[in-house]
Amino acid sequence: MQFLFFQTRKPFVTNFELIWNTAFGFFQQEINQFKVLGVLICKRAKSNTMEPDVFTAFAQPSVLHHSPLKNDAIQGEKRKFINPTSCNNPKLEELQMLLIDWINTTLKQEHIVVKSLEEDLFDGLILHHLLEKLGSLRLDVEKIALTEKKQKHKLAVILEAVAQSLQLEESQLKWSVDSIFQKDLLSTLYLLIAIAKHFQPDLPIPSNISVEVIIIERTLTGLRTENAVEYITKNRENLEGQSKADAFDELFTHAPDKLDAVKKVLLQFVNKHVGKLGLNVNDAESQFADGVILLLLIGQLGGYFLNLREFFLTPNCATEMLHNVNLAVALLTDGGLLEFPVNAEDVVNRDMKTTLQVLYCLYSKYKTKET
């Protein structure tokens, strides 16, 4: 019986081992195949020989991962961030290195070394040291906050102190606690540039730096994206254009009584050229906000027809309006008419000064043009 028992167990053990080894060998083979596939993909990506559709499939999750719009964002909320393709812009890299060197020089005695703006400043620790050094500000916050809740609270206190020191209204802020804490480079750059201009105005910040931004908005149907070009630093290359912008500042600040006369002249100019399209503008503040009349006016003055597929003739939301105004700004810039940077969002938000500045650029060029 003992011999028979031994003979019946042996085949069972042998079969089990055979099954195990076969299965393990199969999985090991699959793993090796994935490793080989991964190596091939990496090599092809580095050599830029990957087919566009394959490259897109691997690139898209990375872009979405860095999206500043959370899944729990409310409808209508929109945020913007730098398109990854702009991160290799030499001027943008120059700006970042300047700000990094400035921070490291300022905080040298504290033995603080910054290597990445968005990665090193998000929790408020270095910003705290920077404000204490530059503005002699004493903030009632912990030096080191360990938890996320405490870090965000500290950052909120610091950003509030920045707004007060720089005398900025909430509508003027181009950053927020959430955007800085989420390591958004665009917001971090705006914040540091504002601090530098206030506390160290002699810092040689490069001018005319623009980046392509991605604007994301949550709608009923999901996320909508829009590309736009945005200036991070002012364009000072054209002094004449700057003086025109300053002239409008002077007009709004010190000569509001002449504002109605300027509006009247510009509206007469606009209606002279869009009247043949059956259009009439009575309110300069609201009727240019969607960009439609502005685009049609540019086409009329430039003597060309804008393809209706290029813009929204009847925009239904702020994103479509922004697309139209961005297109108009791009056309004016390409034509050499826009001599100073214009934020398209200001036109959409019915900022009268910005709208009149844009119209004045057209007026200066085409005021003698016959209909």
Which bin fits the share of residues in helices?
Answer: 55-70%
N-to-C span: 115 Å
Q: H/E order of the elements?
A: HHEHHHHHHEEHHHHHH
Secondary structure class reads mainly alpha
Helix and strand layout, with pairings?
Blueprint: H1 2-46, H2 52-65, E1 78-82, H3 90-106, H4 117-121, H5 125-135, H6 148-166, H7 177-181, H8 185-199, E2 210-219, E3 222-231, H9 239-254, H10 259-274, H11 292-302, H12 318-334, H13 344-348, H14 352-366
Antiparallel strand pairs: 1-2, 2-3
Structural summary, described in words:
This protein has 371 residues and is mainly α. 57% of the residues lie in helices and 7% in strands. The chain has 14 helices and three strands. The protein has helices at residues 2-46, 52-65, 90-106, 117-121, 125-135, 148-166, 177-181, 185-199, 239-254, 259-274, 292-302, 318-334, 344-348, 352-366, and strands at residues 78-82, 210-219, 222-231. The chain has a three-stranded antiparallel β-sheet. The protein is elongated.
